[in-house]
Amino acid sequence: MMLALRPRALAIPRARTSSRIVLAARLRYYSVVANAPIPKKTKVWDSADEAVKDVKSGDTILSGGFGLCGIPETLITAMTKRPEVKGLTAISNNAGAGDHGLVKLIKSGQLDKVMISYLGGNKYLESAYLNGEVGIELVPQGTLVARLHAHASGEPALYTPTGANTAVESGGIPIRYNPGGLKAGVLIPGNKKEGREFNGRRFILEPAIAGDVAFVHAWKADEVGNLVFRYTANNYNGVMARNAKLTIVEAEEIVPVGSLSPNAIHVPGVYVDRIVKATEPKSIEVTKLAPSKESQAQETSPGESNDKAHKDWRHRIAKRAAREIGDGFYVNLGVGIPTLIPEHLDPSVKVWLESENGILGMGPYPTPDQVDADIINAGKETTTLLPGASCFDSAESFNMIRGGHMDVTCLGAMQVSQAGDIANFMIPGKLVKGIGGAMDLVSNPDKTKVMVTMQHVSKDGAPKVVKECSLPLTGARAVSLIVTDMAVFQVDRLAGTLLLTDIAEGVTLDELRAKTAADFEVSSHVATF
């Protein structure tokens, strides 16, 4: 039964126009007729095995989740019991890790192709791709969710700045190699995209993605299909539920109709066809912990910051990069060195950290008793939420990113050119990490300052600051500031020039020039760090 809560009278001035408002507040929070008749058809099925029985060979399956957070493990496991169903295409942010997620269907030989944004440490899938055993279409994370949303909204395509002037536009990333791998040549080339300029900016036309079946994980579902997600387990689940011809939901809790507040519904029941009980346990890909609750609130003193920077080149870079961030900034930090920046912020500077999997107001790592499988960061690590934090789905996250609502984004790179081109997602034929959210993060550099933190040279001594990038681009003319362990360069993206503003202690200008494969000018006042 729907409860009509009766709060105490609100402190509203007794003007003549307010009397009705006070009365309504005393009666109930929302107007729901508790005993009115509703359709009696239930969408709840007895088992996952029965719910997936209509999935057929050749279908395109949409699978929610980010890393291992919010993945429909119960439904995926049920599909592995139908080995006769083959030639499937799976669309997801990533394809699981270890023995969890979509990798189960790859190992069972049921998946022929995946459309994902990121492989990460999935060595099995990376090896299968490079050997021509499976097809992978890499799609920027924000573009992937936007293309799914487009079909769900009845739109055939969308224009996006993400991926413009990169291999995503040119179709330069092979979808599948011939059997035998790279040496045997390309079997299925990448899909070339149409480009167009709007107001001086380049955009590419991306087609909508349509799914035959969606596998969705929800926290709560009522018997008519209304869904509620929990924290960062929202991610892709909502948009996938809205997209497919057949949407199957596994829910941690299946509740009676009327148990969920209308204000709490993330996905209305109209999109959902079948509901089963989630039975597989949740998994955490990377458990990162804070030593204690006291350490979570402890700020790094200037002395500690200096000591870390003196001992570790990564902290030296992070300490210098931290000077670019102001109080109250909205900031997205990539994996690696950028995650060290908060340790070196001035004590007077407090920021809102955004994680592209659906957090604004991300906190420190949790203590063991705070670990929650539904609260992870973009690196798939356990994290916490600050007071005032919000959680949302991947569509919302990348709308705020592409729209330029972040003040600063900081990420690593394999190469950066003197014009601000950045390459950080793959080495053709050798390393395929995936695009992830990086192309989206650098897609609006006029509104969001893009800062790169990296070592000045690669492990083999090759310069990483170059005249032109030789690796596939993540973004063109995107980077405004380069911070390395040797120097800091301001980038004039329009002119395509670099200006040296800082040099690391102990580094000479001659040494810097020898290790930089790009032209640069020297500021009249070069600082040291």
**Widest sheet: strand order?**
17-16-15-14-18-23-25-26-27-28
Overall strand count: 28
What structural class results from the helix and strand content?
alpha/beta
Uncertain runs with pLDDT below 50, 5 residues or more? Answer: 1-29
Q: What is the overall shape?
A: globular
Helix fraction, binned, reads: 10-25%
Number of helices: 14
Q: Main β-sheet: number of strands, strand sense, barrel status? A: 10 strands, mixed
CA-atom Rg in angstroms = 25 Å
Which band does the percent of strand residues land in? 15-25%
- Average of pLDDT: 92
Relevant terms:
about 525 residues, alpha/beta, 10-stranded mixed beta sheet, 8-stranded mixed beta sheet, globular
Would you kindly provide a written description of the structure presented here, covering whatever features stand out?
With 529 residues, the protein is of the alpha/beta class. Helices cover 19% and strands 24% of the residues. The termini are far apart. 46% of the residues are buried.
Gist of the model:
Helix content is 19%, strand content 24%. With 529 residues, it is of the alpha/beta class. The protein is globular and about 75 Å long.
Which SSEs are present, and which pair or pack?
Blueprint: H1 19-27, H2 48-51, E1 60-63, H3 73-80, E2 88-91, H4 103-107, E3 111-116, H5 123-130, E4 135-138, H6 141-152, E5 157-160, H7 167-170, E6 176-177, E7 186-188, E8 195-198, E9 201-207, E10 213-222, E11 227-228, H8 237-243, E12 246-255, E13 274-277, H9 293-297, H10 302-311, H11 313-322, E14 330-333, E15 352-355, E16 359-362, E17 385-391, H12 394-402, E18 408-411, E19 415-417, E20 422-423, E21 426-427, E22 431-432, H13 438-441, E23 449-454, E24 465-466, E25 481-484, E26 487-492, E27 497-503, H14 509-514, E28 521-528
Parallel strand pairs: 1-2, 1-10, 2-3, 3-4, 10-12, 12-13, 14-15, 14-18, 18-23, 19-24, 23-25, 27-28
Antiparallel strand pairs: 5-9, 6-7, 8-9, 10-11, 15-16, 16-17, 19-20, 21-22, 25-26, 26-27
Helix pairs in contact: 6-8, 6-12, 10-11
